[in-house]
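[DERIVE STRUCTURE TOKENS]
===
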Amino acid sequence: MRLTKFFLFLFLFFSYTLCCFSCIFLEKTSRLRLISKITSFFSSLLLKVLGVHIKVRGNLSSKKLKLIVSNHVSYLDILIIAKLIPSIFVTSTDVENEFFTGFLSKIGGSIFINRRLLKRIHREILEIAKVIVHSCPVCLFPEATSSDGKTVLPFKSTFFEVAKKVSIHVQPVCLKYSDSRVCYYGDMKFFNHFWKLLKIKRIDVQIFILEYVSNIENTRHEMSNIAHSRILKAFNGEETCKDFQRFIAGNWNLRTF
């Protein structure tokens, strides 16, 4: 079973690479828009191969332009969000320099940021804003690292400034897995972790689409704090009873994939 999954992964990896490279001659705006859709399609296939079952609670904001923020537990987060919302992802220059994940991030159109170089931040904010306005939604992991899945780490507020720049609301989402073995953090090596992941027969994950955070009356720090609070409450199940009542009343959408 594990070998079968691995060979299917290799087939999807090479197919995805070929599709992304076929977009190389397109103008950047069109290329990113198409790559986000290609990534969404292949994410759906790979999640099936890995036995990932998704329950979606909530509805996306009706606003067309979106800055999506989420807690970060695993590389599976990217596949799950990409499946539901074709997006371009923000990641660090540390990932860019890694052999395999760096390659995938590059062909997937990721925006690379370096929080340690303050002189680059303004340019990076503008780059993210341009992608949102001209191409597709952008997903940001404000914890700036992945966690062990036990809680939601504090958010870095810097890139919430994007929402102020282009006058869009922030769409927070929360991911919660049933199996802690999916967590990928610290000094873990990708291939070692992925090989162990292939052994898991079924992975259940809930994704909460939470109420959007307004950019109008809130500063970037306030938007960051509000988004973190909503994600943390969903992660801890503090709103479970209230949300179940909303679901029964028909105001809370539940979908299973």
